[in-house]
Design a protein that fits this description.
The chain is an alpha/beta fold and 374 residues long. Helices cover 37% and strands 12% of the residues.
Length: 374
Amino acid sequence: MYSPLAGVRVLELAPFLPGPFAGAQLLALGAEVVKLEPPGGDPGRHLPDGLFAMNNRGKRSVCVNLKAAGARDLVQRLVAGFDVVLEGFRPGVAARLGVDYATLRQARPDLIYCALSGFGQTGPRAAWPGHDLTYLAAAGALSRPGHWSGPARRPGVPVADTAAGLFAALAVVSALLRRAGTGEGAYLDASITDAALSLAACRGLAPPTSRTHLHPANDVFTCADGAELAAGLLENHFFSGFVTALGAEGAPLTEPRFATVAARQMHGDELQQRLAAIFKARTATDWEAFGAAHGLPLVRVRSVAEALADQHPGAPAPDFAVRVDGARLPAPPTDAPALGADTAALLGAIGYDAAARAALCAAGVLPPCPSEPA
C-alpha cells in the first residue's frame, strides 16, 4: 500500500474543521494522527451531519485538560514522540496553554508545527474571530456570483476551512521533506482567509460587477421532476452539439445571436429563459442519459451520499482524491475515535503507569471520558 508518511506521527490540537481536515489528508498518506482533545472533546463532535465522524476516521484520541496544573509536563513528554503538531486555536491561546511552538520544540527540536487561524498569527485582524463564511467574505470569495442571474451566494461546502486544511497538509509534507535533508523543524503559519483568497483570485482581480466569468449555458437548471441539472455547455462545440442533438426541440437556440460564446453572453438573459424552458421538459435523469448518449456535460445534481455511492460503492467515506499508480488509497478502516479512547495506551507508552494516570486524574489533568472507567 502506498504510504509515503508511514512512521510520521501527528498530534492534532485543532477543533472543528480546518485542522482535522488537514490531519485527515496526512492520515490518508500513511501518518498516524492523534487528537489531543479538551474536556468534553473537540467541539466538532457536537455539530450535526457527521462532520466530526467524516473528518476524524482512523485517528486516535487523548483527552487532556490543558488548563490544569501538570498538563504542560505531560504534553512535553507526549510531543517528544511526535513529528508534527497541528494547532487550531486563535492567536495567543496556544501560548497561554503552553502548547505553542516555542514551548513544544523544547521537547522536540525538529518539530514541524502548523498553526491554523482565521487571519494568520500577525497583522491587524489576527485576533478577529470568525467562521468559514466570514473568511470567505474577507477573501473576496463572496463578491462574485457563480450563476448567470442573481447575487453571489454562500457555497454549501465550507470552502475556506477545507482549502486551509489542504494548504496546511501540503505545507507539512513540504516541511517533512525539508527536514529529511536538513534535520530542521519548521513553524508554519496557515491563514484560512489567505487560503480562501488563493482560490478566489484564481480568475484574476476583476471587479464584482464583471460577468465575464459567467456563461448563460454553463449553469444549473430545474427539470421536469423538480431536480436540478448542471449544464456545462460553455464551449461552442458543446453548445452546438446540444442544439444538434435536440433536433427540432433545439430550434429556439439556432439564432445567429447564440452562435458564439461572446454572443451568448451578450444575449444571456434571453438565452437562459429559453434553456430553462427546454430543460423543464424532461427529468434530470433523462437529461443525464441524453448527455451521456451525445457526449455532452449534463449532470444531475446529487447529494453527497449519492455521490459517495456513485464514486466509492459501499465505502463509508471518500478515499484520498488522487490515484497513485492507478490505484486508490483506501479510506481509513475505522470510525472516528471515542473521546479519550486511547489515553491509557498512549500515556502508558511514554511511561505513565496506572498509578501515574490515576494521579493525573485526581489532579484534573485527565478528565473522565465516556470511553474510560471513571
